[in-house]
């Protein structure tokens, strides 16, 4: 597997986890922003800098850290979309998509 493929897979998983967590808990906009600021952004930056450190030291595990960077970045973007787009929030909260 290439690094680009792994990054893409982890990024897509971040989108899915954001959607699933919102449907399960239906966070308020305020709680989503707190989650982004105090969990997702620090985790994204931490994973990125760990991947750089591991890459410099020659360890192959930097690839997984870089993939997790993509996971948290995409999760942050998906949560921001839930905060800013009310139509998307309504769509994500639906339980029956057939009725429209």
Largest sheet: none
Mean of residue pLDDT values: 94
Form type: elongated
Range of helix content? over 70%
What gap, in angstroms, lies between the N and C termini?
39 Å
How many distinct helices? Answer: 4
Percentage of residues in strands:
under 5%
N to C succession of SSEs = HHHH
Q: What report would you give on this structure?
A:
This protein has 100 residues and is mainly α. It has one domain (3-93). It is 82% helix and 0% strand. It has helices at 3-25, 29-56, 62-84, 86-93. α1 runs parallel beside α3, α2 runs antiparallel to α3 and α3 (62-84) crosses α4 (86-93). The radius of gyration is 16 Å and the shape is elongated. The termini are far apart. The mean pLDDT is 94.
């Amino acid at each position: 597997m290439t690094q680009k493929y792994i990054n893409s897979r982890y990024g897509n998983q971040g989108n899915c986890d954001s959607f699933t967590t919102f449907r399960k808990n239906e966070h308020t906009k305020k709680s989503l922003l707190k989650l982004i600021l105090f969990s997702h952004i620090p985790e994204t930056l931490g994973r990125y800098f760990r991947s750089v450190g591991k890459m410099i030291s020659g360890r192959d595990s930097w690839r997984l850290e870089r993939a997790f960077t993509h996971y948290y970045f995409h999760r942050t973007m998906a949560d921001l979309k839930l905060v800013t787009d009310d139509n998307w929030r309504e769509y994500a909260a639906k339980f029956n998509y057939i009725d429209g």
